[in-house]
Write a structure and sequence with these properties.
The chain has helices spanning 15-29, 47-58, 74-78, 97-107, 111-126, 135-151; strands at residues 2-7, 38-45, 66-70, 88-96. By secondary structure, the protein is an alpha/beta fold. Strands 1-2-4-3 form a 4-stranded mixed β-sheet, with helices on both faces. The N and C termini lie far apart (32 Å). Its main location: cytoplasm.
Length: 163
């Protein structure tokens, strides 16, 4: 999977490297993401911009930490031939800086760690995983997140010890 990364309104840091490492871990726990034909857009932006996107595309008039806009159905993704055909847009992800920073501070973790979790969360949504459908789907998505974060050396964000 290729990442197209755009950074605006985030502090100086190697966010591209973080995103690439997170994508690598995501591909290990969700192999359908390892398809070389996939392209994902990742925007590091402000609360104001995410608020606009959330209002325009989800009819929710507020900012949020991460938005995911899938462009492939899960069945199309898992059956996508990795060698035959043009690049396929998996979808777009947008992270809101101020919200991510507040959440990281509240959790007692650094912004990079929280951003890694949210990038991963967004990628899994683009792969067709959803925590809002059922408790079983939420548990499955959470397990994938915990496994991928562990590959990055990041503690389980759902454990009581980190809450």
């Amino acid at each position: 999977m290729e990442l197209e990364i755009d950074i605006e309104d985030w502090p100086e840091h190697d966010w591209e490297d973080l995103a690439e490492r997170v994508a690598g871990a995501a591909q290990q726990v969700a192999p359908e993401l390892a398809n070389p034909r996939l392209v994902t857009s990742l925007l590091f932006t402000s609360d104001a911009r995410v608020h606009e996107l959330n209002r325009e595309w989800r009819q929710r008039d507020k900012p949020t930490n991460v938005l995911s806009f899938p462009m492939l159905e899960r069945s199309d993704l898992v059956h996508l031939d990795p060698e035959d055909g043009p690049p396929e847009m998996l979808g777009d992800i947008a992270l809101a800086h101020e919200t991510c920073e507040r959440e990281a501070e509240a959790k007692g973790i650094d912004l990079e760690t929280h951003a890694a979790h949210l990038i991963l969360h967004g990628l899994l949504h683009l792969a067709g995983h959803d925590h809002e459908i059922s408790d079983a789907d939420a548990d499955k998505m959470e397990q994938l997140e915990v496994k991928a974060l562990a590959l990055l050396g990041i503690a389980d964000p759902y454990s009581a010890a980190t809450s």
